[in-house]
Amino acid sequence: MSAMNIAYMKKEPIHENLNTSFVNVTALVRYLKNLQFVGSVRIELSSYDADIIFTSSQTIIAREYDHIAGLITTGSDALKRILVRATEPHGRVHVYRVTEGYAG
Asked: Considering the entire predicted model, what is its pTM?
């Protein structure tokens, strides 16, 4: 299952609106990867959002969007920046598991 396919699959929320002040996103990503999780983690901060996508082939795909700079970046460098930015307080973390079937 590719990242593009995951983007169009139905997603079941596992956790929503967790505060970055209390969530260690690096530990969460490590934990989900060890579980062979298939789904995504979304991080929302002021003027910034990011997705960490876990594929069924155990690949992690990262995408970040810096609204102020107007930049969308992907890859391992983006993942590193996401994990750093996710330590900022008052952001939101959402975890979604992919379920069977396509969304609409």
From this structure: 0.86
